[in-house]
Every structure is written in structure tokens, then in C-alpha cells.
Amino acid sequence: MFTDPRTGAQHQAPSLKDPSSRDLSVVIPAYNEENRLPPMLDEALKYLEARQRRHLSFTYEVLVVDDGSTDKTTEVALAYSSRLGFDRVRVMTLPRNRGKGYAVCRGMFASRGRHVLMADADGATRFADIEAVEEALKKLLGKDGELAIACGSRAHLEKESIAKRSYFRTLLMLGFHALVWALCVRGVRDTQCGFKLLSREAAWKTFSRLHVQRWAFDVEMLYIAQRLGIPVAEVAVTWTEIEGSKLVPFWSWLQMGRDLLFISLRYLTGAWSLELHHKEQ
């Protein structure tokens, strides 16, 4: 359900299986992001509003999914909805924290866009880089295609990031990448960048089969896409590290490594399949 902050009315969320009614949906998962969310929304909405003024037929929506925050994330997001209108900025508040993957999934299922972008609440990726990601998606789709995914990538920054990281963190990062390549996804150098654009049909086919609810969900999503033959492109984006990350380096990498093993083993043993895992809730 979505709440219109101007009227207080409750609105039923639309379905990803409905025909699209917007050109672009932007899904932003947010957990305790009252401080980092405003700059991100300011940048994104400034770009989207300017694009709409340049191209009057362009339509968009922003969906903020509050993943059970204990701060004022929902109130902050609702202020934008009140100012710009419920039709442009919608806020979904989950009753408890379920994980980034679950929050993105909920937003995807409630989106109305022909293309659906997932973007992190910290604003680490320059939002205007959506143009390069869109161009890659269009090339994959061609004239009549319905299935494609374009991933923002920080792989071109790898040498720089290694130079700034401790030896231990670099070792963890390289180990994670090696596990991804060995167990799940090949051909995508940066699976974890939170800036990914999907065609509407690709969003349905991948997220309706998703099992992982936390940080490693990107890997499973791309694994599903590759298993289903959905074309995937990787596009370099401008990325800046933002303070306030929710990831605790050692334990988060450890949890993601465990999830990678689970993804591989559960698909190999048949515990998980590519059948639809869950319907929209």
C-alpha cells in the first residue's frame, strides 16, 4: 500500500504484470537513510524534472521502499511526495527490516515503468549516468526485444579502490569476486553496484524467482538472468564512496560469501529452481 501524504488516502500498489504506464520507475531501497536520502533524491529529481521539461512526453516515478527503518526515513521521503505529488514520488514502508533484496523486490513489483532502475539511497552513483545505462539497455533490446538488463559498473575504478583499501579488505573483495565467478555469474565484473536498469519483462522474470533477501541478491538476480538467457550489459558509471555504509566489512563479506555458496548449492541440488518462487504480495 502507498499513502498519499496530501490526503492521507491509502492506495493499492499496482502490479508489475500490468502494462507499463510510465517510461521510467526508480526503485530506491532505504534502511535508516534519513541523512543520506535527501541529497540522493535532490540529485535524482533535479535530473528527472529537467528531463521532463526537455521532453514533455517523458514520464517517471520514484519509489522509496523503507525497509523497516527506525529513524525518520519514511517521513523524509513523504516530504518529497507531498511537495512533488504522490504520482511522482511514492513511499512504501515495510513493517520490519527484511533486507535490501526484499525491499528492491517489493519496489519492483509495485513499479509502473517500462524500464525500472534500482538505485541506492546513498547516491554514490551519479544519477545522470542513467543515460549511458539506458543506451546500453536499448542496444540489447533492439527493435522488438522485451528482455534486457544493463548494470552500472565500478570495475574501471578497481585499481584506484585497491590502492585506498587495506590489504585485508582488498583480500576480502578479491575473494568475493572469485567466488562470484566460480560459483554463480561470469561475464559481469561488478555484480554489486546498486545501479541497475531492467526492462519491465526482465524485472518480472528475475525478481519473481528471487530467493536471497539481503546483500547478495544482485548475484542471484544476475544468475537467474543468465540461466534464462536474458542479455546483460555492463556500463562504467561515476561512483563516489559515501560515508554511512550499513555494511560491516568483515561480517558483511562473510555473509555474502555464505550466500554465494547457498545460491550455487541450492540450485545445483534442486532445492531452488527457476520456477516462479513467489507472487506479488
From TrEMBL:
Enzyme nomenclature, EC number: 2.4.1.117
Boundaries of every Glycosyltransferase 2-like domain copy: 25-206
Top-level taxon: Eukaryota
Chain spans, region Disordered: 1-21
GO biological process: protein N-linked glycosylation
Keyword terms, alphabetized: Endoplasmic reticulum, Glycosyltransferase, Membrane, Signal-anchor, Transferase, Transmembrane, Transmembrane helix
One Pfam family it belongs to: Glycos_transf_2
Reactions catalysed: a di-trans,poly-cis-dolichyl phosphate + UDP-alpha-D-glucose = a di-trans,poly-cis-dolichyl beta-D-glucosyl phosphate + UDP
Enzyme class, spelled out: transferase
GO cellular component, one term: endoplasmic reticulum membrane
Localisation per UniProt entry: Endoplasmic reticulum membrane
Bilayer topology term: Single-pass membrane protein
SUPFAM superfamilies membership: Nucleotide-diphospho-sugar transferases
InterPro entries to which the protein is assigned, alphabetical: DPG_synthase (IPR035518), Glyco_trans_2-like (IPR001173), Nucleotide-diphossugar_trans (IPR029044)
GO molecular function terms listed in the Swiss-Prot or TrEMBL record: dolichyl-phosphate beta-glucosyltransferase activity
Pathway: Protein modification; protein glycosylation
Similarity section: Belongs to the glycosyltransferase 2 family.
Full protein name: Dolichyl-phosphate beta-glucosyltransferase
Organism annotation: Eptatretus burgeri (Inshore hagfish)
